[in-house]
Amino acid sequence: MRSRPALAWLSLLLLACIASSLLLGSAQNPTAEIVLQIRLPRALLAAIVGAGLATAGALLQALLQNPLADPYVLGISGGAALAGVAALALGGGLWLGGSAVPLVAFAGALGASLLLYAIAAAGGRAPAHSLLLTGVVFNAFASSLIVFVTSAADLSRVASVFLWLIGAIRPVELPLIAGVAALSAIGLAIALRHAYALNLLAQGDATAAHLGVDVPQVRRNVLAASALLIGASVAVSGLIGFVGLIVPHLVRLTIGSDHRTLLPASALAGAAFLVSADTLARVVLAPIELPVGALTALVGGPLFLVLLRRELSRLPS
Amino acid sequence: MSDPLLVARGVSHAFGRAQVLSDVSLALAPGRLLVVAGPNGAGKTTLLRVLAGTLRPDAGEVRLQGAALAELSRREIARRLAVVPQESHVPFPFSVREMVALGRAPFLGPLGREAPSDRERTERALAELELEGLASRAYPTLSGGEKQRVLLARALVQGVPTWLLDEPTAHMDLGHGLQCWERVRGWIEAEPGRGCLLVTHDLLLAARFADELVLLDQGRVAASGPPSQVLTPERIASVYGVEALVGRDAEGRFVVSPLRSLAGSGRGDRAENFR
Q1: Which residues does A64 contact at the CB level (< 8 Å), separation at least 6?
Q2: Residue B55 pLDDT exceeds 50
Q3: Using CB atoms, which residue from B74, B92, B112 is nearest to A252?
Q4: Which residues of B113-149 are buried (b: 16+ CB within 10 A; e: fewer)?
């Protein structure tokens, strides 16, 4: 088994990424206060969001038997963001220092997942293009509603609409980080519990059933896990795209497809990836900060096209 | 005669208004290769789903090794019945060994932890189907014939007495197709109590290998019995719209040879457009 050493190496990589994010920034000689109260919470948040999005991507890919699935591409992040923004606009999101937003965003992610499933998967396995089209259309729809809601409710002081739509790691309070971490941990635990069943589900719903899997039950639980991960991530970072596409793809190439390794490895690698991307976003144009979502899309967009081309050429027509 | 492995009694099913299966009955006895054949649209795929328990029929009953299929959980079914699908598209680079090992799933805990004996079974199945050299290869990179061998190895690893095969030779050339049928025959004969139901539209291989043939036509059993009794020239003409020669070779084996389609005369509506 090469899975244990791989997970150990990825943990080290994550620690190294967090350490370098603490050392790098626009302040040349950062005080302990900057490092501990600004950079550390931000690195932790980036790690949680990256782990959540990457794991959710791997879950959705197995569930839909489609390596192109990604929370953002499928419009599930859009549903989560829309619900979160609506909660803020109605004032309901500010309970518990804003910790209600992740819960509402989870509900939004769940709703979008079910909608996607109902529309695109009607009549068996959904063809790649119908899933992607549904996601793109739903994303556009959610984005316009987000703009509408934020403008109408004048939310500019709570969160800029631009940061919601492009996706960025924003400074948030500690209780909110704790809430997001708790939701993500629950999602990850459910996901890991179904890792072996996902190996079977990745073969197709029929084969999974033939090998003894209760497909509807596993599908429900895994959709809930991915919605938890996506809702928690989106509530604090907006629409960061393609992490769920890039990371599981690289993990499959280097470590393998067995979900018992793929899921934890994607979580670790996703965390490391987003921490470094966010560090880069802070320093590359310092003192101006790039939203990290712009960076992930810069890498993820072209990769998506490459994967799409390969998928289309492989599929039986 | 010993109890049948798999029995269907009076199975009927409709999708909306289309009656796909009407009063289909069959029984697979141990030691037998039962072939369900029929032209496209005869209801073969639907029958297979009913027999595998993934589709509940409108009427009729299926029994698997004496138990009503409707009352068994997916896991209980998978501990008695292996389904070998057509060459399947798996979009992830699982290795051949990983694919074959999945056959143990019905016997493992929720985390899929394998005992050494499970791993031994996998290695034996890989050896038996001459897949050792490919064990570390990614499944999607294999040829059609190689993929089929992986799926057969997975059924072997499952270690259950009843196999259900769906068009195993649909994407294979003649040589690989023959090899596949020979392997299935070999598996049945290797141990008493095993039986296989195979669905195909390939009459020629069915005539050569089946112990018993169920000929489906428009959702009904047109005939069933030994291939030499089922496949009369008249029946092949009425079900397939094909004029065929049937007879025995020098060693007494039953063979069918198609001559020409009977376009225009009765059932030939399929070919009419090409005139």
Answers
A1: A121, A126, A131
A2: yes
A3: B92
A4: ebeeebeebbeebbebbebeebbebbbeebeebbbbb
DSSP-derived pairing of the beta strands B67-68 and B242-248: unpaired
pLDDT digits (tens, 9 = 90+) for A94-112: 544 556 788 888 999 999 9
Q: Which residues of A touch B105 (CB under 8 A)?
A: 196, 200, 211-213
Flag whether pLDDT at A196 surpasses 60.
yes
- Please state which CATH number belongs to domain B6-226: 3.40.50.300
The one-letter code for the residue type at A230 is I
Q: What whole-number distance in Å separates Cα of residue B46 and Cα of residue B33?
A: 20
Predicted complex ipTM exceeds 0.85: yes
Q: Do B98 and A258 touch (CB under 8 A)?
A: yes
Tokens of A307: 């994967």
d(CA A257, CA B236): 47
Contact A266, A55 (CB under 8 A): yes
Q: Evaluate the CA torsion angle A70, A72, A75, A80 in order and state its sign.
A: positive
- Say whether A200 and B105 touch across the interface (CB within 8 A): yes
A202 → chain B, closest CA residue:
B90
The strand pairing partners of A129, in sequence order, are: none
> In this prediction, what percent of chain B has a pLDDT beyond 70?
95
Tell the burial category of A252 from Cβ atoms under 10 Å away from its Cβ (0-12, 13-18, 19+): buried
Distance separating alpha carbons of residues B259 and B239, to the nearest angstrom:
15
| Residue showing tokens 């990769």 | A303
- Spatial contact of B36 and B188, defined as CB atoms under 8 Å apart: no
Distance from CA of B82 to the nearest CA of A (A): 7
CB contact under 8 A, B92 and A67: yes
Q: State the pLDDT confidence band at A37, using cuts at 50, 70 and 90.
A: confident
- Hey, is the C-beta of A197 within 8 angstroms of any chain B C-beta? yes
How close, in Å, is residue B242 to chain A by CA atoms?
29
Domain boundaries, chain B: 6-226
C-alpha B5: how far from its chain's center?
15
B111/A65 CB distance under 8 A = no
Whether the per-residue pLDDT at A310 is higher than 90: the answer is: no
CB nearest A200 (choices: B73, B92, B102): B102
Distance CA A131, CA A206 (A): 19
What is the Cα gyration radius of chain A?
Answer: 19
Place of tokens 């959540």: A52
Number of other CB atoms surrounding residue A307 within 10 Å: 16
Between residues A283 and B125, which one has the greater pLDDT?
B125
**A315 in reach of chain B (CB within 8 A):** yes
Average pLDDT along chain B: 90
